[in-house]
Give the backbone structure.
Amino acid sequence: MENIENQILKDKRISFLSLGCKVNAYETEVFRERFEKLGAVIVPFEDGNADAVVINTCSVTNIADRKSRQMLHKARKLSPNAVIVAAGCYAQAVREKVVESGDADVLAGNDKKDIITELVAEALLKKDPKPACDTAPAYGSGEKEDFCHERTRAFIKVTDGCNQFCTYCIIPYVRGRVRSRDTGSIIEEAVNLRDKGYREVVLTGIHLSSYGTDLTSDPDAVPLLDLIDEVSKIDGIERIRLGSLEPRIITDGFVAHIADNPKVCPHFHLSLQSGSDTVLKRMNRHYTAEDYENACNLLRKAYELPSINTDIIVGFPGETEEEFNETMEFAKKIGFAKIHIFKYSRRKGTFADKMPGQVDEEIKTRRSEMLSRIDEANHINYVSGFVGKKVRILTEQEEVYDGKKYMTGLTERYVRVALDNRDCPQNVFVDCLVTGIIDRGVLTGIPADIV
Ligand code: SF4
C-alpha cells in the first residue's frame, strides 16, 4: 500500500492545524512527518490552496467543539478544492456526523489516525483519479528547514488513553484505555530529535502518570521514573520536562528520584481541578486538597522555587459559593506559578452532564474572572522571586516589548526572560542575570555566558 500511497501523495500540498492539547500538537507533528516521508509537500494552513488539509480537532469543552467546527469551515474556505480531514477527539466524538454535515470529507478519529495517510490518499484518488505523478511544483522544502531550526523544544508522546474516568471528562471514551509505548521506541525518537538539534524534550501523554502501568504487573512500580532515567542518558538532550502529572504520583521516593537528576526541570503541572474536597469527590478525582498540598510541599522541600502549575475547573455541577471560596483560598495558599482556568463545559456521555445543580454561565464567568485575578497576582509574585538572581535560559525566539525587540527564552522553571541582546542566537543556553519584570510576568535579563 505504501507504494500506491507514495504515488498519490508525492508532491501533494498538505497543510495541518492542531487544536487543543500538547498530545494533539505532538500527533500533528507525527502526521506531518508521515506525509513528508511519502513525498507530500507541507504548506502553511493560512496559505490556502492545499490539496488536503488535516485538522487535528479537540473536544474537551463545548468551546473546543465550536472551534473545531470553525476551523473545518475555515479550511474549506481557504482551500475550496482540498480534501478536508477531521482528525482527533472532536472527529471521534461526533463521528460520521462531521462528514454528513459536509464539514469534512474524511474522518480520522483516534481509532483511525494510524491509517491517516492511507485515508487521505484514497480520498485524493477518488477526487482526482488521474495518475498522481507530475502535480504541484515542489515548493516549500526551504520552509521545512526553517521550521525545524525554529524549534528548540520537542514533545514526545509516551502514552495514550486514560483509565481515570473523571466524571466531567470525555477523554477515556474517545481515546480508550492507557496504552504506553515501549521504552526503545521512545529512546529512538528522542535520539532522532537530538540529532535534529533539539536540546529539550517534554514527555507527554493523556495521563502521563500512568505511563507503563499497562506494561508491568508490579503494582508498586513507577515506570515513568525508569523512562526518565533512560531519556536522561542521551547526550545532547539537556533538559527534560514532564507533562501534566497526577498529584498522587508525587511521593517522597518519586521526588527524591527526580531531584537527583539535573536534567529534569523543576517545572511541574499538577492538575488540581478544585480546592474543595466535596467537589473533588463529585469529580471522581482520587485525592483531597490536603493530599495535593502535601505533594506541593514535597516539591518545595526538594527544589528552590519550583514552578507549580495547575488546571482548575470553575462552575462544576453543584459548586456552591462556599466550595468555590475553598478553591480560591487554596489557590492563594499554594501560590501557583500559573493556573489554567476552565469554565465547566457539559460533555454528552459523561456522568457530570447528568448531575443536578448545573451552574449558570454567568456565575461561571464571574468565578473564572475572580480566579484569574488570583492567578495574575500569584504569577507576578512567583516570577518576582527571580529578580536579582542568575538563571539559565534556552533561547527560542525574538519578541517585541514596548516597541523594542528582544531575544527571549525559557528558564528551566518555565519563566520567560527577554534578553537585551538581539545578537544572541537561537537554541543556545545563556546564563543571565535577571534585572526586572517587563510585561505580565516576562523578566528582563543581561546575558553573561552563552553555553
Ligand atoms: S485524568 Fe481525568 S481529566 Fe485527565 S484524561 Fe483522564 S479522565 Fe480525563
Observations:
- The longest strand covers residues 390-401.
- The pocket of iron/sulfur cluster is lined by residues 162, 164-166, 169, 171-172, 206-207 (CB under 6 Å).
- The longest helix spans residues 361-384.
